[in-house]
Amino acid sequence: MLAAGDIEWIFRGTVIKPHSRRSVDICEDQLIVVDKKGYIAHSAPAGGAESAVVLDLVEKGEVAKDRFVELGADGWLLPGFVDTHTESRIDRDPNGLGKRVYARLVQRLLQNGTTAASVFGTISVEANLVLAQAFLDAGIRGQIGKVAMDQHSIPTYIETTSSSLSATRTFIERMRALDAASQPLVEPVITPRFVPTCSLELLRGLADLARETGARVQSHMCESEGMVAVCREMLGGKSDVEVLDELGLLHDRSLMAHCTHSSAPDLALLARTGTSIAHCPLSNIYFSAERQLPLREAWDAGVRVGLGSDISGGYRVGLDENMRWAVGVSRLREGRRAEVRVGGKEEKSKSLAISWKEAIYLATLGGAQALGLDRDARRVGTLDVGAAFDAQWIEVGGPASRVDWFDLEDEEGGEGRRVTTEEKVEKWWSNGSEVDRKAVWVQGRRVYSQ
């Protein structure tokens, strides 16, 4: 157990723990200890022997009272949300307007419990560096992409092939100089906008750059009927999935947004290459309403999937609405499963619909897995020992909260029926808002509170 001087935070109360089985456990009366480096050093029932040693340190005053947080009967900790796909483009006046917009963006993300995000920026190196600095200043994790595109765009928003490759290399170098830590808070991402706006020469050059630098890759893929048709027309009948794979842009550091028109062979390819998907259900309702991501099939194929807001494709900065929409559209798919189910042997016992607990997994550990944040020393997305303490404290039932419940009294003087903690969590999942979020931490640092 840590010495008192090595303890940064102690939390007691309910903890929601996502796990790799794509669900969450709701654990009551837990004790979590966070060390000075921002990692979880202890996570166990508060009544255990080791937890008693920690609580004794608080009782003796060896750990400051303001470092001990009691989460309350109507409160809990859960990992921070990981937004796997969002966009923020400010081309004009990045050091003026850009700074103001990006500062507001990161604060909105934190207010909504987002502690990590993968972002499509703009084609401008300078504007993207301003964006990355806003993430650093706010203490939020960011995988920032300089968009690359050399064809089929408006004249004021396009690059040449050589200038795009050169600018992307410069961006990677300057991003890594901006945050040179061994476990950086912000990282550069190679970001071809999508296949129709990138020549094969540019895509090939970006793939070479990804291999050379080890940088992650993100793009849009098979998002809509129109995009699928245009790609096949441009590529001699091939799909964007096939071409991105042939050029070496699909691998275990790759994230593809949307993928709503994925076929069973596409999903098998993504699983084989280790490519992840950013599922953006709210945005897809607007831009590819004819079809939604075959989420259950993607999971069954072995593809890592996280949740994305895709602002401003979607209208909500946070992932709360996207969790709800993920469940909603999956239920619609189940209602039409004979028409929409993708490939494989029919398993009528396995619903295409997902549960609210699976949606929380998508927004937390699922997102961390999609961004590769679970694979190194950070282990983002969980609240287990050894993981970085990226977390949010929710407390429901306040005057402005939309979460209500009513315990039932026994008319004959018995205990009656009290609403359980799990029921409160589900009510928050259904109706919660920013009002219920008391604080947010990234790597053990409190970056937001109200």
TrEMBL record:
The UniProt GO MF terms for this protein read: guanine deaminase activity; zinc ion binding
Does this entry carry the keyword Zinc? yes
Q: Which Gene3D superfamilies match?
A: Metal-dependent hydrolases, Urease, subunit C, domain 1
Q: Which UniProt keywords apply?
A: Hydrolase, Metal-binding, Zinc
The keyword Repressor belongs to this UniProt entry's keyword annotation = no
Q: Please give the biological process terms from Gene Ontology that the record holds.
A: guanine metabolic process
Q: Could you say which cofactors this protein requires?
A: Zn(2+)
One GO cellular component, as annotated? cytosol
**Which Pfam families does this entry report, sorted A to Z?**
Amidohydro_1
InterPro entries, from UniProt? Amidohydro-rel, Metal-dep_hydrolase_composite, Metal_Hydrolase, Metallo-dep_hydrolases
Name used for this protein in its record: Amidohydrolase-related domain-containing protein
